[in-house]
Write a structure and sequence with these properties.
- The chain is of the alpha/beta class.
- It has one domain: Rossmann fold.
- The protein contains six helices and six strands; from the N terminus they run H-E-E-H-E-H-H-E-E-E-H-H.
- Strands 1-6-5-4-2-3 form a six-stranded mixed β-sheet, sandwiched between helices.
- A hairpin with a 5-residue loop joins strand 4 and strand 5.
- The protein is globular, with a radius of gyration of 23 Å.
Length: 217
């Protein structure tokens, strides 16, 4: 206490003032998800087929919005040329409107996709968990498969939950950086914590950030 020039009442007043003016602590952004795999071996990925998002329960009309969000965020990374494959195209080729990253593929699936679209890789993405009500959460499982060898070049599995304060803070920061508004966010976190479609863009951005570590442009 000797470093303060005041004592007694004025010293207590000084301490009271400084304690009240201490800035609030801000939650740090979450660390990058660690549960992903990547391999440097294999041919260069110059052209990749982006398959429709898979989910066992959600209707295709809803998943279309998620398809668009994920393909848009992947294209932003400029890692390779993206070839979006529609559910109609997939149905014509295999009789299935979506393909999971963990199910057994139809015979010659990779060869057909490679021949039809001239791709080096195929990106499978599964929506493993989804809660559209606050706190919104979204689980993503994804794999990038070498179209020639069938080997997995990159794999990812993570659940983004806005009930986690650091995830919510990172989502709000994404909105500040990548939307067209410069207005301050409301105290409740703004629309990204209330809108599943907007939150899915943050999820896609974070997911493909780990893909960018393997395939820098």
């Amino acid at each position: 206490m000797s470093r303060f020039p005041t004592t007694g009442f004025f010293g207590l007043l000084y301490l009271s003032f400084t304690s009240c003016s201490t800035p609030p602590k801000v939650a740090p952004p979450p660390p990058p998800p660690q549960n992903y795999f990547s391999s440097a071996s294999g041919q260069p990925m110059r052209r990749v087929a982006f398959l429709p998002i898979w989910n066992a329960r959600l209707p295709a009309e809803y998943l279309q919005d998620v398809d668009n969000a994920f393909s848009t965020e992947l294209a932003k990374r400029a890692l390779f040329e993206i070839v979006p494959i529609s559910r109609t195209q997939l149905s014509t080729l295999f009789g299935e409107r979506q393909l999971s990253s963990v199910e057994i593929l139809p015979a010659e699936a990779l060869a057909k996709l490679r021949a039809q679209f001239g791709v080096d890789g195929i990106l499978f993405t599964d929506l493993t968990q989804f809660s559209p009500y606050r706190p919104i959460s979204m689980g993503v499982r994804s794999k990038l498969v070498d179209a020639q060898s069938g080997s997995i070049r990159w794999a990812f599995d993570y659940v983004y939950d806005t009930g986690n304060g650091s995830v919510a803070a990172a989502a709000k920061n994404y909105q500040r950086l990548y939307t067209n508004t410069n207005l301050p966010l409301p105290s409740d976190g703004g629309s990204i914590l209330l809108s599943p479609s907007r939150f899915s863009r943050y999820v896609a951005s974070e997911t493909y950030g780990t893909l960018g570590l393997q395939f820098p442009h």
